[in-house]
Here is the input.
Amino acid sequence: MNYEQDKPNSYCGIFGVYGSDTAAVNTYYGLHALQHRGQEASGIVTRSFNGDGKAHFNIVKGEGLVSEVFADQKILNETLIGNAAIGHNRYSTTGSAKSRKNIQPFMVNYRMGNLAIGHNGNLTNAKELREELVNEGAIFQTTSDTEVILHLIARSKLENQIDQILQALRKIEGAYCVVILTDDKLIAARDPLGFRPLALGKLDNSFLVASETCAFDIQSASFLREVNPGELIVIDKETLNSGEIKSFRINEKPEEKKHCVFEYIYFSRPDSFIFGHNVDKMRRRLGKVLARKHPVTDPDGERVYVISVPDSSNTTALGYARELEKEGIDARSEIGLIRSHYIGRTFIQPGQINRQMGVRIKFNVVKGVLEGRTVVVVDDSIVRGTTSKQLVHLIREANPKSIHLRISSPPIMHPCFYGMDFPSREELIAHQMHGDIEAIKNYLEVDSLEYLTIDEMLEAVSEAGEDNFCTACFSGKYPTDIDVNFKKEMYEV
Here is the structure.
């Protein structure tokens, strides 16, 4: 089993640019920086103008990494021409991963002209809206919930395009960030609860939007601000002249925020700025709280060695080790696991080789660091537990004195309906064990296992507001009405 298959899988990454003569290249680099948010497929749509001044949309998308889909430089230099673009990295949430039709951005031509959309998140009322649209005569080309948004816009009776989009967004529920390209505008919107991060930036005279600020840093663009929860922004020719971005409210009144706390724990890159704070800082705080509440000491008074499960837990482990030292415990942060970054996404096929070999291909232990030591392994989460168990076996071969696993999130007990591709409740190790941490410890064969509690986790991210986070996958308390029988496979074909 590939390591990522036993981790919470991310939603998608979106990027948009308006007013750049190198819009396709800007989007390429932006998507490259957002590759961690989706590795199944990638796509870019650009807007150019014909000789008669009429807008024309160009599109290239395909399966694979950004560097694979756009390997031919002619795609960026000759095919994807224009000064406005949107792009999307895909990890399948709602919609079949096997269907090429589900690769975004989606593009249509309707009575108001061309329209392309990229969506990050998951709509919780997509099933009802889809059935309603089909009954009204809509014909769907994909199994993705994103196409629901397209149909709602295209079938609107309103005459103003922004009003059409606002009307559509007011009908959908759940988690979403969208980028929309029209004949004369770049539009971006974020759901009223702010589940997903979405940032606004500037590069020379052009404006950018992206899932994370790391997509700006790669091309030396400046970060202006975050798109607010429940906000729709419009960037057009007037914006380039005046510098003023038009802003609209999706909902009538501001609602509470429910950011996905897993963005801080695992998904976002540590160099990104989301939800008002740096991800690196929040991960270190998670590690510090984990150390204060769940420390490890050596029974013989010797040094404790703290290692991370790379790469997402690196900064959390640094925070954990530093806090142990502050608490008077002799501790050192070490590199005990080396991760290979050169494995193809389909290298390991189920049944092809021993599953244990999958972990050996992905990780190698540094025996000189671990042998005879009290080792604390800091990880961000445990989903199924299968890879964690194999990893413990691998570390055990280095003959440590003991292995202690510390998790910077609470036990995952419930599925996510807002874009994270958790397995079914029955596949979650914490659910299987009825939340019994001792039972999970015995299954993983570690000397001790401790998680952050929900309150401890919220304490760590409290600078962003303890009440501003969705904890549904831990607590089962969903911030919106959901269909508990919903499964992503309902749309797969």
User: Anything to note?
Assistant: The radius of gyration is 23 Å.
